[in-house]
Write a structure and sequence with these properties.
The complex is a heterodimer of chains A (about 280) and B (about 170). Chain A has a domain at about 180-250: Beta Barrel (Thrombin, subunit H). Chain A has helices at about 5-25, 35-65, 70-105, 265-270, and strands at about 115-120, 130-135, 150, 155-160, 165-170, 180-185, 190-195, 200-205, 215-220, 230-240, 240-245, 255-260. With about 280 residues, chain A is an alpha+beta fold. Chain B contains 7 helices and no strands. Chain B is mainly alpha-helical and about 170 residues long. Classes of the chains: A alpha+beta (about 280), B mainly alpha (about 170).
Chain lengths: ~280, ~170
C-alpha cells in the first residue's frame, strides 16, 4: 500500500487519539490550556459582541409580539407592584438610617466597598454539558479571577477565566460549581452544588437541620472568594433525596450581568491571617 | 500576470473566503446566546451538520475539521479535544459511507445525519460522564440530537448553496 494512502487512512485515527490525549491531560491539570483559551476568548469576544446584540433583540422582539396581548393585565400588575414596592422603599430608607446610626454607636467597621462592571452576555456555547457564559470585559476593565457575577435578581456565577478583553463565568448550576452559603434565618452553613440542571443541591447540611421551602439562601463569604450576603436562590424542595434550591435569576435568559469586584482581604483566600494587633478594636 | 490567471486567482480567493465566512458563521451560531426551546441553552449541533454534509459532497481535510473543533472547544469552555474528536470521528464515519450516500435521496441522507447526531451525542455524554466521574443527564442530550435532526433540512440550504458556488457545480443531493 502506498505511503500516501496509509497517511490518509491513519490521519483520523491519529487525530482522535490526539483529542483523547488532550482531554486526559487537561483533566489531569497538566495542560496549560488557560492561556490559549483566554487568547481565543479575546479574539472572538468582539465578533460575538457584535452578533449577539441583534440576535438577542430579534428573539426578544418575537417573544414581545406574543406578550402584546397580555400588556393590559401586566400593566395592572405592575401598578400594584409599584405601590407595594414604594412602601418597601420607604421602609428600607428608614432601616438604612437606623442601621447607620447603630453602626456609628457600635463603631462597626463597614465591609469593603464593592465596585461593579456591567456587561452583556455574548456567548453561552456550553450546551447540555457545561454551564458557562462569556462576557466581553476582562482584565483591562478590572475584572478579577473569582469575582462574583450578579444579574438583577441574584448571584449567577463566578469568574473562572480572565483574558485582557473577555472573561468566562462558571454558572452556579454547573456541575463543577460549589458555593459556600448560609440559609437565611438559621445561620446554618452549607455548600450549594450545581447539578447541570435548573436546580442546585444543598450539601454538607448538619443532620436534622429542618429546612423549609421558601427560605432564601445567601453567600456566606467563607473561603474569601465571594463577598458575604449575596442572594443566590430559594429552597424549593426538601425531601429524603436532598434539599433543592432554585436560582433567583433565570440563567437561561441572561442578557446583562454585573461583575462584582469586592476589595476582599487576600489573606482570607489563603487562610494566612495574622493575629490582630493590640490597637485594633480600641 | 495574464488576465485569465488573475480571474482564476480571484475566483479561488473568493471561493475560499466564502467557505471561511460560513465556518465563522457556524462558530458564531454555535456560541451566540439564544434560547430556541424551553430547555435552556440546549442547541443543535450546527458544526456537525456542516461537517457531515460537506463530507458527503467532497473530502474535507481532517486536520481542518480537527482545528475547527478545537477552536469550538476553547470558545465553549469544553475540555479541549471534545468537539474535535466528535467532528473528526463523524467526518471519518461519513467519508467511509460516502459512495453509498452520494447516490441516495435526501431522505436517506437526512436519516444518516440523525444516526451521526445520535452517535455524536452519545460519545459526548460518555466522555463528559467519565471526565466528571458522574452520570450526566440524558434528556438534554436527546433533545439536542432531536433538534439537530429536525433542523438539518433547513441548515442544509445555505451549506448546499455555498458548495455549489465553491465547487462550481449546479447539482447537489
Amino acid at each position: 500500500m502506498p505511503l500516501k494512502t496509509v497517511t490518509v487512512r491513519a490521519t483520523p485515527a491519529v487525530l482522535v487519539f490526539l483529542s483523547l490525549s488532550l482531554m486526559i491531560l487537561y483533566r489531569a491539570h497538566t495542560l496549560p490550556v488557560q492561556r490559549l483559551r483566554t487568547a481565543v476568548m479575546d479574539v472572538t469576544a468582539p465578533a460575538l459582541s457584535a452578533v449577539a446584540a441583534p440576535i438577542q433583540s430579534f428573539v426578544s422582539n418575537i417573544s414581545g409580539v406574543a406578550s402584546l396581548q397580555n400588556l393590559k393585565a401586566e400593566n395592572v400588575r405592575l401598578k400594584a407592584d409599584n405601590a407595594r414596592l414604594q412602601k418597601w422603599y420607604e421602609a428600607a430608607l428608614e432601616l438604612k438610617a437606623e442601621n447607620e446610626s447603630f453602626r456609628q454607636l457600635l463603631n462597626v467597621k463597614a465591609d469593603p466597598a464593592m465596585s461593579f462592571v456591567t456587561a452583556r452576555v455574548v456567548s453561552d456555547a456550553g450546551g447540555a454539558f457545561v454551564k458557562s457564559v462569556l462576557l466581553p470585559v476582562g482584565a483591562r476593565d478590572h475584572v478579577q479571577m473569582d469575582s462574583a457575577v450578579m444579574s438583577g435578581q441574584g448571584l449567577i456565577g463566578r469568574v473562572v477565566e480572565v483574558g485582557a478583553a473577555a472573561s468566562r463565568v462558571l454558572l452556579i448550576t454547573d456541575l463543577n460549581s460549589d458555593i459556600p452559603v448560609i440559609v437565611q434565618g438559621t445561620r446554618i452553613r452549607a455548600i450549594l452544588a450545581g447539578e447541570n440542571g435548573d436546580l442546585m443541591r444543598l450539601e454538607r447540611l448538619p443532620p436534622d437541620s429542618g429546612m423549609t421551602v421558601g427560605t432564601q439562601v445567601v453567600t456566606s463569604g467563607d473561603g474569601g472568594q465571594l463577598p458575604a450576603g449575596l442572594p443566590v436562590g430559594t429552597i424549593v424542595s426538601v425531601s429524603a433525596k436532598g434539599v433543592w434550591v432554585k436560582p433567583l435569576s433565570n440563567l437561561n435568559r441572561l442578557v446583562y450581568v454585573q461583575v462584582v469586584n469586592a476589595a476582599l482581604n487576600p489573606a482570607l483566600a489563603t487562610g494566612d491571617i495574622a493575629p490582630a494587633s493590640q490597637s485594633d478594636g480600641q | 500576470m495574464d488576465s485569465e490567471f488573475r480571474t482564476q486567482l480571484l475566483g479561488t480567493v473568493g471561493r475560499w473566503s466564502l467557505v471561511l465566512a460560513l465556518v465563522l458563521a457556524l462558530l458564531l451560531l454555535s456560541a451566540v446566546p439564544f434560547s430556541i426551546t424551553g430547555f435552556g441553552d440546549v442547541r443543535p449541533f450546527f458544526a456537525l451538520m456542516a461537517v457531515y454534509y460537506w463530507s458527503i459532497l467532497a473530502s474535507a481535510p481532517p486536520v481542518g475539521v480537527f482545528a475547527f473543533g478545537l477552536v469550538l472547544d476553547l470558545l465553549s469552555g469544553y475540555p479541549p479535544g471534545m468537539n474535535a474528536l466528535v467532528l473528526v470521528a463523524a467526518q471519518a464515519m461519513t467519508a467511509h459511507q460516502r459512495k453509498f450516500l452520494l447516490g441516495q435521496s435526501f431522505l436517506v441522507i437526512w436519516a444518516g445525519f440523525a444516526v451521526v447526531a445520535f452517535c455524536a451525542g452519545s460519545v459526548q455524554w460518555v466522555l463528559f460522564s467519565l471526565l466528571n466521574l458522574t452520570v450526566m443527564a440524558v434528556l438534554p442530550v436527546l433533545i439536542a440530537v432531536a433538534l439537530s435532526a429536525l433542523m438539518f433540512p433547513l441548515c442544509v440550504l445555505p451549506l448546499a448553496a455555498v458548495y455549489r458556488v465553491v465547487a462550481d457545480r449546479p447539482e447537489t443531493p
